[in-house]
Amino acid sequence: MNELVLIKGNRFGLNFIMDQDADFEALLKATKVKLTEGKKFFGNAKVSIGFEGRSLSDTQQQSIIHMIHELTDMEVFCVVDENMPIVSPESLKAMAALTKETVPMGHFPKEVAVFHQGTLRSGQELNMDTGIVILGDVNPGAKVTATGNIVVLGNLKGYAHAGCDGERQACVIALNMQPTQIRIGDVIARSPDKFEESRTVAQIAFIEDERIVIDHIEGNTHKDFKILN
């Protein structure tokens, strides 16, 4: 490609298309120029971002997100995996609504949720230095660990540890909550027997009075919580 970095808008946010052969420091410099030149155009939108052209490590993604926050008025609410299916704007807005009471931006990674498309099967592990939204199931024997919240848009039947760096205000959300074990911060759910199947109402697990409580998400249930991505 003629330019090291191209920034293209879509219905959900921005795609950063990067030269696969360029040095990362050169990509950072090119990204800085693009963001500075386009600050007025970008405005103060709340956006999702994606990366194409090359694979970036978590640390490299953090560097770019910090740069976005420093050089523009945009707010990044999630990083979208380029392999995930097309999601409607309404779905992304719903995800953004879950995080509207997040802690202040600029303290990546906790404020940025990463989307993962696909079911995790027995023996598979997903470890993130961010929050994670899983578009699929977490089967028995699979493990998900995240420093922020864990949201499973499917069945949670494996192991989930939210706030794994000690964050007790994290939570676990699933459309069908039947985990083998849940941990939030340093607290472990005492009895798996308390996880009841609920195929019609999404549930949220959070810490209350030094124990993990699981409740249906309905009405104003979530408003008492400080949601971390």
From TrEMBL:
Keywords: Cell cycle, Cell division, Septation
Biological process per Gene Ontology, one example term: regulation of cell septum assembly
Domain (Septum site-determining protein MinC N-terminal) ranges: 5-76
Keyword Nucleotidyltransferase: no
Transmembrane residue ranges: none
SUPFAM superfamilies attached to this UniProt entry: Cell-division inhibitor MinC, C-terminal domain
The keyword Cell division appears for this protein: yes
Domain Septum formation inhibitor MinC C-terminal residue range list: 116-214
InterPro entries the record matches: CAP/MinC_C, MinC, MinC_C_sf, MinC_N_1, Septum_form_inhib_MinC_C
Family the entry assigns: Belongs to the MinC family.
Subunit structure: Interacts with MinD and FtsZ.
Record's function text: Cell division inhibitor that blocks the formation of polar Z ring septums. Rapidly oscillates between the poles of the cell to destabilize FtsZ filaments that have formed before they mature into polar Z rings. Prevents FtsZ polymerization.
PANTHER family: SEPTUM SITE-DETERMINING PROTEIN MINC
Protein name: Probable septum site-determining protein MinC
Organism: Petrocella atlantisensis
